[in-house]
Amino acid sequence: MPQSEEEPKLFDQCNVCIVCTDSLPLEAAEQLAAVIEECGGEPSIHHSTPTKDDTTACSHIISNTINFETYDLASKALIPVVKPSWVHTSLQKRKLANPRQHSPDPRLFLNDVVVTCGDIPEGDKDAIIGGVVAKGGLYSSRMSALVTHLVDLTVTSDKARLAQTKKLRVKIILPHWFDDCLKLGQRIDERPYILPDPEILRADPDDPIRGFGNKGLAGASTPEPAALPTPINGVEGTNQRNVFDGKCIMLSPDLSIGTHLLESIEAVVKRGGATMTGNVAEADWIICRFREGFVYRTASRLGKEVGNLAWLYSLMTFNEYTRPLSRMLHYPVSRAPIPGFEGLKISLSNYVGEARIYLENLIAAAGGECTKTLKQENTHLITAHGSSEKCTAAREWGLQVVNHLWLEDSYANWKMQPVSDPRYNHFPSRTNLGDVAGQKMLDKDVLEKNFFPSEDTEQPSPSPPVLQDHPSNVPIMPPPEKKQKADKKADKKAPEADQGTPKASGKGRKAAEKNAQTPARSRLIPDEMDIDTPSSTNSRKSKEAAIAHLHELAPDIALYEKEKKRVGGVIHGGRRKSDEDRVRENPKKRRSVEPEAESEEEQVNDAKRPKKSRPAISMHLLITGYQKWVGKGNEKKEDADRRHLRDLGIMVVQDARRCTHMAAPSILRTTKFVNALAYAPLIISTDFITRCLEEDELLNPADFKLNDKAAEAKFGFSLAKATKKAKDNKNKMLHGFRIYCVEDVRGGFDAFKSIVEANGGECLIFRGRLALTNPPRREESDDEDDMDDYTPGRHDVFLLSSAETKHARLWPRFRQVAGDIKRAPKIVRVDWLLDMAMSQELKSADEYELTEDMVGKDDQ
Q: Where is the sequence biased in composition, kind Acidic residues (predicted)?
């Protein structure tokens, strides 16, 4: 860009750090640096994380990701972190662009969207523009090459035609996509919303919802990985820098890992250029299991990078730095549950693969219980979309049905979120929310407030900081005459201290003594030490003084740790074998020392345990009237039988729309039986179920066709003919019918409503207070196909009722409002509907019609 020497250049006074990553390689970084330097800026390229001095000295940081170690420092110092597009946009505008619209922060999930609007209402246009800009995007009033999304309702608008003519790389998208993104607070896939043939408009509600995959959860679905990973991005023989190069790493004693695994981890990180330490003050990265103890709190207050073993393994696997706060389960977990989560029983629906494992482990980390099956004792159902058998059952049972955002927000805020928030009850029609699971980040301020507060809440914080009750003031091994007094004081002050870290085996203990110079938990050093986070000059001086003091105390602390691990335990000098209050350890019962930790591990292991392979589903079976499952106390048998049937390839379903087969002991007038007839399944006897279970084999269902001549004669229809007619009707027998129903009809309005809708009609409650509306006209083709025996008058409107006095009071009002819309009122018994649904043929309403002289004589 030519500029005169007199006028200031574009990037004058800009000191720009460029951070190289996999998505911003060295070659691209050098090109950016050349452009910035030509326009008066001072660029510097960093192959790894810029140092703290480099970060605070620059005016801008260019990175495609927030995953570099000094990101938090840059944020606190208000130094903009921008993507390379900030440079290009600034050059085009000839002025520095707004950094917010080029931020790599995933919380600004529309930051790479440049939107323009086509022929949509002005109100929708304003709402979309406001939402996009608020979430980091840009708005353009005209179509240009920079536009990424055109919001429109058709592809025939002027802007859409211009985009197609010029072959611009723009997505023409329905406004529904922005609405769903903003409601969820996360970006979802655009593909179901893209014109000219958007899936959300053409798909049937019963069509399965496909997922597009979730690669972001790779290596981040469990806080306790089972084995050391195999790196997939090796750096040997290349110019790529190892993520561990120059780092000093400390493994906290609370990891309780064995000698062999410890040696393997040390070998990997040392091969990558890192060193190991047992001193928290020297370490750059600290690996902990729990959010507690001296090591965790001290490292967090000193601003160290704190992650768990899963985070360390992820770095080994991908050789790319990620912040442990950017993944929920890359950060140490808490032994205590989120307030309110204890006792919750949560089931999952429609989540698969890594997303399901991740949510199972997140539920356990939050303090709830994840159940594999849904029962009435459950409290919540977390589902990826709103249509499934579990969702239907959960709503019928009054359970809370939410998406995974409720769980993630509760975990990130360490506070149970209200399920009434619309964000947690929104399910986009053609989106599987499992695709966006795991994008929520942890909040450092929330963690500090709940797990490592800056100030000691039990003791005043003197200034300048003095570490009261520190080992420099209290001897590690007090004289014998003072031992008993110290014992009593310590027991009152910290009764749980010995339970902070599980005891290791002999070999593991020696390794821990060799590599760890700080105790996992210490009665002598308060958990809430007066060490502030680096937010001011005074706090930095306090931190440096504390670090220097810790260096001096390292040998004493190591000795204390060694003494504490002696058999029987040590409290300020230890107990004698003759002490009356000495707890004698039973090696056989050592596993019961930490039942909570053991329970968590069992949950994680259950999630990891490979499931037994099952055969493919060969039939979807709807069951009604199976006597072996009927009655109180048979729930366990039903669950066991259902699992057994699934192992044979039979999926038991509750929704008639999904069934390919229906099993019943005889012809019944149950809701399930009548509804299923409309979908023409193969109807078989429940003997098929019994025989399959007894013989542990999938038998031929055609050998068990239901034969019930007595019921056919009673109800006046043929089951075989009804099934054939149902196939011809294709669920449209009642298409165009609007049938009203009194509210408290015997059998329940919901049952008759489901029967009417299964056959293509519409059913509404009539309470006598509202006027009727004109029913839709039936199509000619439907009349010809469906009305072989009887064609009801198009001016008929029907009311399902009984001959009870309270129902008869509504009849005059029904006749009146039917006349108002010029329709002939037909007040009929429910048998009219049931007989049509059972026989799958339309019948005259005359023989079922109710009149005033029948009131009190007919009980239904």
A: 595-604
